[in-house]
Automatic annotation (TrEMBL):
Localization, UniProt: Cell membrane
Bilayer topology term: Multi-pass membrane protein
TM helices/strands, residue ranges: 21-38, 181-207, 228-255, 261-284, 296-313, 354-373
Signal peptide range in chain numbering: none
Name of the protein this chain belongs to: ABC-2 type transport system permease protein
InterPro entries: ABC-2_transporter_component, ABC2_TM
GO molecular function: ABC-type transporter activity
Residues annotated as domain ABC-2 type transporter transmembrane: 22-369
Keyword Cell membrane applies: yes
Keyword field: Cell membrane, Membrane, Transmembrane, Transmembrane helix
One GO cellular component, as annotated: plasma membrane
Keyword Ligase: no
């Protein structure tokens, strides 16, 4: 009986052409789209306009340093600040630097001077990198000016450097040393598509039976609802895991995305998440009046869950009540844990509370679905 039910559900999934194509090709299409999108991996060219109102050797030296900055590329040198402002308004440049008159003279006399830097904040990634590059240039120029001021007072160059730079800050990004966007985003975005596709399938678990004329025949025949839906769930979860294997194989093997944790632990973690995810879809399917409503309920949960998971925007920065609510979703625990598994190798002792949370979600949702279905 159980074998027949397993084969029956697998046949239904395969014959549903729309769902089959979504499950098979949705995640694979996501791999292609997101890897191509983030193939540059890091932003290295930020168009910059420089207005040099001083025209001194010091200002020309500053322009050279800006052109040599890691992310900035000078594409225009307008004659005035209003012209530069117009360039940034039109989107021709993302950064404007205005070097004031008497910049070089103030530096020579050891006086404080300022350089205006305008950054287009409408794109946060560009603005963050531009700010970092601009601050690096500013620190370099400030340090050189400080050393020259001490040398003007009679100190030898090496002593001036030592006196001015008593504290040296050494920055070392851990886990993602090159700050590679592809490493951080590609796998998570692909898995987001995968979990949405899986939610669609899970949302058919109960309504696909109770919404058919055959449901009456099942009840009249005295067949166990428990056996029926457990068999269907096993097939669904098995399909979910079969789909994840090529995704992980391509991402970690072909695309060389980082995986510092254990393969076995990651697969086990994904399996527990797949069970919890399926339980949420099953619960939505249990109280839906028809397949369309069930799909809507599933998508209402699946679509915003990645944004709310804290992967892109930290949970700690969200309102406390939102933090409490999103912890009820399996996606939150999965994407939070994914970051640790891929970048940090946390080990079982650290990761076990993620497993426990996902397990509790599965128990609660399956129990709720069982209670609702028992009344049908």
């Amino acid at each position: 009986m159980i074998k027949a039910l397993l084969v029956r559900e697998l046949t239904y999934l395969w014959r549903d052409r729309g769902l089959r194509n979504i499950l098979l090709f949705g995640p694979l299409l996501g791999i292609l789209i997101f890897y191509v999108t983030y193939s540059a991996q890091i932003l290295t060219v930020i168009p910059t306009a420089v207005v040099d109102l001083d025209r001194s050797s010091a200002s020309r030296d500053l322009v050279t340093k800006i052109s040599q900055a890691e992310y900035l590329q000078i594409v225009a040198q307008p004659a005035s600040a209003p012209e530069a402002e117009e360039l940034i308004r039109r989107g021709d440049v993302l950064v404007t630097v205005v070097i004031p008159e008497d910049f070089g003279r103030h530096l020579t006399l050891g006086r404080q001077t300022s350089v205006y830097i305008g950054i287009d904040g409408s794109n946060m990634i560009y603005s963050t990198n531009a700010t970092t590059a601009a601050l690096t240039v500013a620190k370099t120029v400030s340090a050189e000016a400080g050393v020259k001021a001490l040398m003007a007072r009679g100190l030898p160059r090496e002593q001036a450097k030592s006196a001015y730079q008593r504290v040296t800050l050494q920055e070392e990004p851990w886990f993602n040393p090159t700050l590679n966007y592809a490493y951080f985003l590609v796998l998570a975005l692909i898995l987001n598509i995968w979990q949405q596709c899986c939610t669609l399938a899970a949302a058919t678990n109960i309504i696909s039976e109770t919404g058919r004329p055959s449901w009456t025949q099942f009840k009249l025949a005295g067949l166990s609802k428990w056996t029926l839906f457990v068999s269907k769930s096993v097939v669904h979860i098995g399909v979910f895991m079969l789909l994840i294997l090529p995704i992980y194989g391509i991402c970690f093997g072909l695309l060389k995305l980082p995986l510092h944790g254990s393969w076995l632990l990651l697969l086990l973690f994904t399996l527990v998440f797949a069970i919890a995810l399926h339980s949420v879809g099953t619960l939505a399917s249990s109280f839906a009046r028809n397949p369309v409503d069930s799909t809507r309920f599933g998508m209402i949960i699946a679509l915003p869950s990645f944004i709310l998971s804290g992967y892109g925007w930290p949970l700690e920065a969200m309102p406390s009540f939102v933090q409490s609510v999103v912890k009820l979703l399996p996606q939150t625990w999965f994407f939070q844990g994914l970051n640790y598994f891929t970048f940090k190798d946390p080990g079982w002792l650290f990761a076990r509370h993620y497993f426990v949370a996902l397990g509790l979600i599965a128990v609660v949702c399956y129990s709720g679905a069982a209670v609702i279905t028992s009344r049908k």
